[in-house]
């Protein structure tokens, strides 16, 4: 059970309603009118809770669970203990996620806090929530249903779409934000990129005259930084998922539905195709092209282009098969040396 000091629970829900919410089917002979009171893990669930099972290597968890309800794949239905009511789904974790969101909806605020400062020229939809200490600059546009957390600063001219969630202590400048974008605490968007003319008499900054364009349904984790472009724009395409503490340099393009795990760093002007996946602490040098569906393992150092669909690892990054062969050879060498 989630801590009620932090999360407010809705429900209970009828099983038939949860099946619709979770895009699942009720198992034959199950009581569609049964009430479900909460979500929980298989280990902690009780007879009034719903959980999910997807890891076939841990069938023992399902067999021993006290959960009254569970979302499972069709092939796993026979693994459930007697008395457990099942929702059948090809993606049980997705079903559980949708159901959990129904039990614990994000809390809606209303209006503009009296301590916020909103410039008179800003255009703010009346359904927008602006929390304590927020500063909204001149000519800002904020769309319907967007929520802005405490002490966030929205710079002059910024445009924010509908149904966005911007957490506390963020700063947004020189950017255009689409609809349904989630921005967690401490994010910095639109700061100047790292552009300098290197000279023996002293380094001179190059004016950064681009923007950051963030398309619809992007998620940006806490304390991530996305620099504005130097002339061309920095572009984050729709559906991209960016974890905490990621650094995205100027003019970078992140492809549609790409996933960047924590502490990834991408240098300026590198382009990622759609569905690229970058493991934690991967580093990409500038002006690279990373093809669609490429996967770059954690802590990889990428210094040259990666073709579409390729898997690379190591620093400098090489194809994953070559990387593991190299590790095996090194292990053999070490063993021989020990002899």
Verbal overview:
With 339 residues, the chain is an alpha/beta fold. The chain is built from four helices and 39 strands. The strands form seven sheets. The protein has an eleven-stranded mixed beta sheet. The N and C termini lie far apart (56 Å). The model has no long low-confidence stretch (mean pLDDT 95).
Topology:
Blueprint: E1 13-14, H1 15-21, E2 25-26, E3 35-36, E4 38-39, E5 49-52, H2 59-64, E6 69-72, E7 85-88, H3 92-103, E8 117-118, E9 123-124, E10 129-130, E11 135-136, E12 141-142, E13 147-148, E14 153-154, E15 159-160, E16 165-166, E17 171-172, E18 175-177, E19 182-183, E20 188-189, E21 196-197, E22 204-205, E23 212-214, E24 219-220, E25 225-226, E26 234-236, E27 241-242, E28 247-248, E29 253-254, E30 259-260, E31 265-266, E32 271-272, E33 277-278, E34 283-284, E35 289-290, E36 295-296, E37 301-302, E38 311-313, E39 318-319, H4 320-338
Parallel strand pairs: 4-5, 5-6, 6-7, 8-11, 9-12, 10-13, 11-14, 12-15, 13-16, 14-17, 15-18, 16-19, 17-20, 18-23, 19-24, 20-25, 23-26, 24-27, 25-28, 26-29, 27-30, 28-31, 30-33, 31-34, 32-35, 33-36, 34-37, 36-38
Antiparallel strand pairs: 1-3, 2-7, 21-22, 38-39
What's the average pLDDT? 95
Low-pLDDT regions:
none
Strand order, main sheet: write it out.
10-13-16-19-24-27-30-33-36-38-39
How far is the first residue's CA from the last residue's CA?
Answer: 56 Å
What is the percentage of strand-forming residues? Answer: 25-35%
**Helix content percent band:** 10-25%
Briefly note the structural class of the backbone: alpha/beta
Number of helices: 4
Topology, number of strands: 39
Major sheet size, sense and barrel closure: 11 strands, mixed
| C-alpha Rg (nearest Å) | 24 Å
Shape: flat
